[in-house]
Specification:
single chain, 283 residues, alpha/beta, Rossmann fold, 6-stranded parallel beta sheet, 11 helices, disordered N terminus
Length: 283
């Protein structure tokens, strides 16, 4: 369920511009769309520098979840199925328009996978590939921090828990005002993660590209590798130096790897565009 009663539903057109930066909604495809879902407590700005680093062959689309950043006044979801149903309804037109990829880090990985799984089950266009970082697949259950968030009674205890895994940059710790905004978001996001039921693998016909930090104390690389049973036979794991937020601490190295990984998908997208004038034909 959501953390507050949600108001009247807006139109698809309105909500697309809420989940994506306004200039991204309805744009003619100019590069392979890569929808990026944030980690717990994070937002779309976590991906603000990616477009410049990855170049024009891809179109980085940071997904703006409710209850944070420009959508701070909106109620947050704390149930994964409700969030994904809303994403599918309001991002659906964008996801159907052309081949695309879904990327998610930590909580974002579970959102991306659950959205892809829903769309496959409903016969909708699936992502061309899933890019899943630093999270456990559903058959392993949620990491301990997510499963026990309800037991973390005070803001200080929650802050200590998040700091221990590198989830709060040092500059934020020095600003009480920022922390007072971050912690309620983080708590609700952890509740969202804890709403994912433990269930056996139900593979979808989508390649999985997996990423992990070799010193991640929350989600070990061996746990990330377990995603292989949830996609098709094309699955690979890249392990980077660092902890749970390796992609922030080693951003240049990670984005260099990601750029190479995306290149064949982007070339496929461009070939379809050049041949037919549109990349919209499936898959």
């Amino acid at each position: 369920m959501c953390c507050e009663a949600r108001g009247s539903r807006t139109t698809v057109e309105d909500t697309v511009t809420r989940y994506l930066p306004p200039q991204a909604s309805g744009d003619e495809p100019t590069g392979l769309p890569v929808f990026c879902f944030p980690f717990a407590g994070g937002g779309a700005t976590a991906y603000s520098g990616w477009q410049r680093r990855l170049g024009p062959s891809v179109r980085v689309l940071p997904v703006r979840l409710p209850g944070r950043e420009v959508r701070i006044a909106e109620p947050r979801f704390t149930d994964i199925d409700e969030l994904v149903a809303d994403l599918d309804e309001h991002l659906g037109p964008e996801l159907e328009r052309s081949p695309h990829l879904l990327f998610g880090h930590s909580m974002g990985a579970m959102i991306a996978y659950t959205l892809a799984h829903r769309r496959v089950r409903l016969g909708k266009r699936p992502p061309r590939a899933l890019l899943l970082s630093a999270y456990r697949p559903p058959h392993l259950g949620v990491p301990r921090i997510f499963d026990t968030v309800a037991e973390v009674r005070t803001e200080d205890a929650l802050m200590d828990t998040l700091t221990a895994i590198g989830g709060i940059p040092d500059q934020l710790l020095r600003h009480a005002g920022w922390m007072s905004m971050l912690l309620p978001i983080a708590r609700d996001d952890l509740l969202l993660c804890s709403s994912v039921p433990r269930r056996p693998a139900d593979p979808i016909p989508v390649p999985l590209h997996l990423f992990a930090g070799n010193d991640d104390t929350l989600v070990a690389p061996r746990d990330v590798a377990e995603w292989a049973g949830h996609g098709d036979a094309q699955s690979d794991l890249a392990v980077f130096p660092g902890g749970h937020f390796y992609l922030r601490d080693r951003e240049a190295e990670f984005l260099g790897h990601l750029s190479g990984l995306l290149a064949p998908y982007a070339a496929e997208f461009e070939d379809a565009l050049a041949t037919t004038g549109s990349p919209s034909s499936r898959p």
